[in-house]
Amino acid sequence: MSGRSGAPSGWPIHVALLVSAAIVLVPVIWTVAAGFRTQISLLMGEVAFSPVLFNFHEVLFSKTSEFLVNYRNSIIVGVASTVLCVGAATLAAFSLNRTLWRRWVVQVFLAWTLVFHMIPPVALASAWFTMLRTVGLENSFTGLILAHATLNLPMAIWLMSVFVREVPKELEEAALMDGATTPVLLWNVVLPVIAPGLAATSVLTFVFSWNEFAVSLALTMKQTATVPVAIAKFAQEFEIQYTQMAASAGLAMLPALIVMLFAQRYIVKGLTQGAVK
Predict the structure, then answer these.
(1) What share of the chain is helix, strand, coil (3-state, %, to 5)?
(2) CA angle, 169 as apex, 163 and 170 as ends, to 5°?
(3) Measured between alpha carbons, how far is 201 from 150 in angstroms, rounded to an integer?
(4) pLDDT tens digits for 132-188?
(5) Which residues lie in coiled coils (predicted)?
(6) Assessment of whether the complete model's pTM goes beyond 0.90
(7) Integer Cα distance of 155 and 167 in angstroms
(8) Which domains does the chain carry?
């Protein structure tokens, strides 16, 4: 069927988008809803159920629960590793695209970061545990922050390289002619232009750090465990606490959603300002 203008109808695209959205959202909605159910109701597969807050109370305020501590740990590790990773990636991207590196050096470096990013994190966990124990950083925030920053650094470098490459060289040349040093050039010229890309890279880095499980499990103990490690502990040897696991998973989604909403507004604002300029 064609529209009045003779263009083909776009309903198949809309249907495909709706199906794709349902594939993504239905498991999330089911998980969040499971947090408001009793264990018996969930295991019996009841469609209609009376919502309860028992699971959230147990996760947050039970005497045996340390979920709030785990939440704090994830925020500390996520924020610190994001700042470290994005800062290093920005400097690396600027160096790769604006200094006199030979082209083959840049290509080899980027290829190596891609290969490193493809290595499963669990394959690095044991080596990192041994290394951190040797230097006295086992079961510490510092060790986990360094590990998460290292894991996400290849992705951040690739993303920041794209944004730095798009900065007009005329702006940098004008700043250099005015006597700007490299730190001043980077802070006053490059960073304002790539602010939307910086925000996007920071969001992805934080979300990946927040969700990382294998390395966090290997490098942390009770005092430094993060949210993914805490959620896994609901699967015990003789019992799996499905509803409490679902409640904690629902709570774990909140920081990532908040960061995404904030970054979305920031990115749109940055792009709009760029268009006006």
Answers:
(1) 75, 0, 25
(2) 135
(3) 14
(4) 999 988 889 999 999 999 999 999 999 899 888 888 888 888 888 888 888 888 888
(5) none
(6) no
(7) 19
(8) 66-233 (1.10.3720.10)
